[in-house]
Amino acid sequence: MNLEGVFSPIPTPFKNGAVDHAGLAGNVGRWIQTRLAGLVVLGSNGEAPLLDDAEADAVIETVRAHLPRSRTLIGGVGRESTAATIAAATRAARTGVDIVLVRTPSFYKNMMTSDAFVRYYTEVADASPVPVLLYNVSLYTGVNLLPDAVERLAVHPNIVGMKESNADLVQLAETIARTADDFVVLGGSAPTFCHALCAGADGGVLAISGVVPDLCVELFDLVRAQRHAEAFALQSRLTPLGRLLGTMTGVAGLKYALDQIGYVGGPTRPPLGTVPLEAQTQIRDQLAALATLTTK
Q: Is the pTM here over 0.85, yes or no?
């Protein structure tokens, strides 16, 4: 099981309001032709909060059926209650995920202290049949999993790492410094990916990697080879599309970009909407610019 490198948090395609399993399988078939280390299903880009449990389980089943065992499958299972998260982790493990990705619960924001997070993740990790990745995504949850909580959780034998989607490089660096070398930290912010790797991150879970996977892997390889000037030059080329598909347009932008390059993106599920026309033009322009890049 590999947790180093670039992982793509894949979207869930819909057709006529239902999950498009044929489209999903076709997408996976194309992604496995790239150098991605694995896929993340049912993350924030997978519209996980908008799927019911039966749909979520079926999505995992489809992806696992088409993803070779040599590629790591990470499945999002975070729910608001500890019991529901444990149940989702158990089902996901049975369906074939290698690792579960557990976002921070967030409805009772003022009560989500470090102590509350430590209790929650400890109980989930105690019960999960497969290893656990912590998932900090303050952009959507409005809560923050701080380094002191991560340090306490990192000693749990079934908690193997975290996805840190915040762009706060100081917090990321502190998290890395306060955890053991075998605790994996994956950056989730495309515009700061190169910086995160230089700070010691083990890889990334990047929306943009579903669109330009090999360029993202090339950036990872350049940093590992200490070819930093080339890495930062490539980062500067990737950043505009990374921002567009991140905070500016989110899931809808990612799906639109995939549609433009022959994948099945499709519509988002309401209440999410569509990409504004101006942003559509910007995405197409950035795709055209990146299409001229070659990797070495």
A: yes
